[in-house]
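As a warm-up, study this chain.
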Amino acid sequence: MNKIKKILVSQPKPTSDKSPYFDIADKYGVEMEFRPFIKVEGLTAKEFRQAKVSIADYTGVIFTSRAAVDHYFRLSEETRFNVPDTMRYFCTTESIAHYLQKYIVYRKRKISFGLSGKLDDPQLMQALLKNKKEKFLFPISDVHKEETETVLDGAKLNYTKAVMYRTVSNDFNSEEPFDYDILLFFSPAGIDSLIKNFPDFSEKYPEVKIGAFGAAAVQAVKDAGLTVDIEAPLPGVPSMTAALEKYLKENRPAEEEE
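Now compare it with the structure written out below.
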């Protein structure tokens, strides 16, 4: 096979030089380019007001992402709502809970979090049910999983969904070179963006290999009529970088093999 020279990772560039992606680039002599196929845009205060949801009416907030945290506090400020010290926060992961420190004094607030990253996490659900009297606000993207509502409805919580941000395609312009040998994806939205940018992708770039992380992304690649060449997580390859290195090692040109 031809030597793989350039790989597009559809994520922001790592902030640390110690990222495994850079180690792989050095080891296999490939160029890594980091460019999300999607980006998050916050709703303006005017757009948010049109939904007729008043942030001030709620005594608890459920967060499933850092983006939700950012846009909740941004829109609170833009709509002149001073978030009170009594506000309760319920997060699907500990990392999201710690991220709240960007906006609040962590120890002085009432914060609960789950361990699995899912809304139906037993620890998180226990905290939510313990505070069932609260009115919960649930900040979400315009594209979200409908099953989240089933979980909250099943717990008979008094909650309101509030779209605070949207996921949009990070389009390529016609002058941009598209000279990649491998594309790595981490969400169905990334695949949707690829097809939006290149409707004839499979005919135009038949040699480009595709990697996908997570069952949803893998299924999205297949639904788009494309082939998953690199998949993670799988036994022995828990991360995308592990799967990528395995693929590069197994597909080295013969003259490079030791």
